[in-house]
Amino acid sequence: MGSQVVASGGSGPRAQRRPGRRGPSRDAGRDRFGYLLLAPQTLGLLLIGAVAIGGMIELSFMKVNVLAGTRTFVGLDNYARILSDPDMGVILFNTFFFVGLLSVAGTIVSLGLAILLNQKLPGINVFRAAIFIPALITTVAWTLVWRFILQPQGLMDSLTATVDAGPFPWLRGGWLTLIVFAVIQLTKNVGINVMIFLAALQGVREDLIDAGRVDGAGRWTTFRHIVLPQISPAILMVFMLMVAGSFKVFELVLLLTNGGPGVQTTVLAFEIFRQAFRLNDLGYAAALSVLLFSLVLAASAIIWLSRRRLVFHETN
Amino acid sequence: MRRTDRRVLRALRTIPSYMLLALVSVAFIGPIVWMVSGSLKSRNEVLRYPPTLIPEEFRWDNYAQVFELQPFDRQFLNSIVIMALVCALTLAVAIPAGYALARVRPRGAAAIFLLLLSGIFLPPESVIIPLFRFAAQLGWIDTYIPLVVFTATLFTAPVAMFVMRQAFVILPQEFEEAATLDGASRWRTMFRIFLPLVKPSIASAVVFTAWYSWNQFLEPLVYLRSRQMLTVPVALTLFEDPLAGPRWNIQMAATTLSVLPVLIVFLFAQRQIVSGLTAGGLKS
What we know:
The complex is a heterodimer.
Chain A: H1 2-8, H2 24-59, E1 62-65, E2 70-73, H3 77-84, H4 86-117, H5 124-136, H6 139-150, H7 155-161, H8 174-202, H9 206-214, H10 219-246, H11 250-256, H12 268-278, H13 282-305, H14 307-310
Antiparallel strand pairs in A: 1-2
Chain B: H1 2-13, H2 15-39, H3 61-69, H4 72-104, H5 109-117, H6 124-137, H7 145-169, H8 173-181, H9 186-194, H10 199-215, H11 218-223, H12 232-236, E1 240-241, E2 245-246, H13 248-268, H14 270-279
Antiparallel strand pairs in B: 1-2
């Protein structure tokens, strides 16, 4: 899966250029058939996408009064407010903290677990299923269970007490809470990444590993120079997934701390929700949405454009 | 003798692996066990410190109380109906689109492919405000419609289209040529010849779409209002007593109820679910 995604993205299918096979009269009918099949999804995406992105940009230039039902054009005021908002520093820091930590740690942890689970041991499937199970559960359910574990005088406090540590203020802000969020988010979906890596590891060519061993390569050398290049498309894909997913630790923030104390544990996605649906400041929330949208787009673009440097292609 | 020695040695060498695996599994399964344990405790025992793992008395009526506090059966049904509708709409648009991009390839197919794929990069949080206003204008608040239509077109169909295109693209050209020689129409070729060959990928697309819809929290939180219309994830957040704080035992009973059906389905369709979620990992 991983290799397919990276290898085939963007470029057209192999058999596309076949001049002479189709006559001109057949082409028209064939094109019409193709467009007919593509129409529902394309038109739906264009219509709703235009409403969504157009509406987002339009609202970001407005001051909306929800109660009076009025809206006035205020130009770039909402964007200026983002720049001058003293809370934005913390919010953006938290957002990037999760992006950085979850993408790097998420990729490394998933790869480590996949290597651990790639051994041929009796009963290994039980462990594979165990790691996958949190991915099946809704984020809300997983977060609520963790809230129960982390409540004052809960399971976690009693576990740390057995080694004479704590009690720790797990959910009362600061670094500890950010780390707790990262752990909850990481354990939730790591199973999916592990499965992507497992599939990639099982596709690694055995003959190359054997050849390496004959040449006297040690375990680390084999991994670094034979296995790693072959699974690099999967690594890139998992990394990209983690980056895109980590912009929204939204549900955890809402359920565990409400962003508090103050804005200490707020992230951009939660701030959008709070401004729009709790403080009714739709214009400002829309400007924040534009910011989030641009950040996700920029991050995806940077990773996508640098993929040729990072990913090893056998065909090159 | 020597052979058994070697076998014992090999078994001993796996012990560190097993210990590590067990430790890791506890981190993933432990919370689930704790959830079930909490769901069976009395109100006093659930707050006791130090906590107990096995409830001293199994309070099965916690589960009955879930249904007294919330119309949880109805909310469950809401989630399932929305999930089924999202799957149906997603497949209805994504299978033809994937087929067209892989096998029909009209002029401009590469550009259309990129356009359709772009939905994958759209963060749902950033477009919730304009979509909410759009839904309000159309009178769709507190209905299933925005949860089905917006989710399918913007978020699940792009992934499903991608999965289906990948499935159709690898099938050999000969099938199509044979069908044309036999005089089969384009529709017949698509439905009778190619569609049955991509069933596993359809299963993957369904699993991913169902999972995405079932997991949604922000959207139902924003679009739905009345208790009768809520979906399971939103309903799960409403078991708090405004005065006494969370009723943890009832909360955990409700959470267990929400988790159980998914785990049962997983037991029976493990392979399809894993392949579906890794295929759809594109948007997790």
